[in-house]
Amino acid sequence: MNPLPKFPWRILLCSLLLWLFAARLGAAERAPQGVQVRIGTILASNESEDFDPKLSRMKNQLEVIKYSSYRLIKEESQRVGWRSNAVFEIPGGRSLVVVPQEYRNQRLALKVRLIEGEKPLLDTTVRLRNRGYFLLGGPAHEGGVLILSISAMTP
């Protein structure tokens, strides 16, 4: 003898399955595996007409900055967890601290701080597409300026 009719149990089971499916989709949107962050340090100057072929995918964006020479002088990649710090050493005694904040609509939000010694030079949030990049004009360096290419991807 079953005191409850079968119909409400089916509704309850279907509701539970829908809730689990929605929770799984929400977890996928947060991308819990972490983020692969890559920082490229580019020296832009007017000392020559050289263009580093490693920078070919961003040539159009770099040329807007109006220098005649672009050379990749350093590139570093780190896997970092959500809301954890990744520290990248930038030429000239500077550090770039990147903290992945969120992942929504195929876009990553990264907290970015450029620090020289104890002095913060920049503190902002950058939003970019998953597997995309952002160019950040930086400080003067060796007769030119540093440009930081910030890219990030989550699996």
Which short descriptors sum up this protein?
single chain; 4-stranded antiparallel sheet; 155 residues; 2 domains; 2 helices; globular
Can you characterise this structure?
The chain contains two helices and eight strands. It has 155 residues and is of the alpha+beta class. The chain folds into two domains: 1-30; 33-153, no CATH class. The protein has a four-stranded antiparallel sheet with strand order 2-1-8-7, with no helix packed on it. The radius of gyration is 23 Å and the shape is globular.
Write a brief caption for the model.
The protein is α+β, with helices and mostly antiparallel strands and 155 residues long.
Count of folded domains: 2
Indicate the mean pLDDT.
Answer: 84
Give me the strand/helix succession.
Answer: HEHEEEEEEE
| Assembly classification | single chain
Report the major sheet. Answer: 4 strands, antiparallel
Number of E-type strands? 8
- Total helical segments: 2
As a percent range, the share of helical residues equals 10-25%
Residue share in β-strands: over 45%
User: What is the strand arrangement across the widest sheet?
Assistant: 2-1-8-7
- Structural class label: alpha+beta
The parts where pLDDT drops under 50 for at least 5 residues are: 9-31
Distance between the termini: 51 Å
Over all CA atoms, what is the radius of gyration? 23 Å
Shape: globular
